[in-house]
Amino acid sequence: MRVDLHVHTEVSHDCRTRLRDIPAQMLRSGTLTIAVTDHDQHRGGPELRAIVEDQGLADQLSVIPGEEITTREGELIGLFLQAGIPPGLTPEETVSEIKAQGGLVLLQHGFDPLKRYRLRPEATQRIAEQIDVVETFNSRLSRHRWNRAAADWAQERGLPMCAGSDAHTLRDIGEAWVETPFRLIRSPDDLQQALAEGTVAGRWTHPLYAYGRKQWRTFRGRISHRPS
Question: Where exactly are the structural domains of the chain?
Fold first, then answer.
């Protein structure tokens, strides 16, 4: 199966991907595990889990509730969250909130200097010992070489590596992945084992092209869902 740990939904302010459409896309792409990481919002993950159960797919698909949290010095992702974490905390406070819920701290797109909300390098160094997973393939970085920089950083510290599509449209889901033997992911331990047995891969798309494609897909989606 494929695992994509950085996905946005209609719960994010900049995404229109309907939660009810995601399970079919997961099956189409073989991305049987995703983390829902909406901007400063937590409810998307639990709501998608409920949809998966209602569609009778709980024995095939895993949804990890998460959040892409805006700290005072850039963004961090929390995985396996039980409740939302407010924006505007320090990176250290954000990490403490994630850990208090039994969650994992994921460092995403932290090595691309053109990412507007990347975690500042000095903050990354301060919390380096508390990072659990590093995103070493992000489909939306300004240059692919920043993925390699993240992989080098993770390898130097012996940290698990993951991939994230940073999906903001339905068809983006699964554009970055960890290929790993199938298992249901219900806990941080399940995920850590899956990542340890997996291989990081993905398709990189230049952000300008990705933005244009997002606008086109959003326009087409509005047309297709317009009442006749």
Answer: 2-224
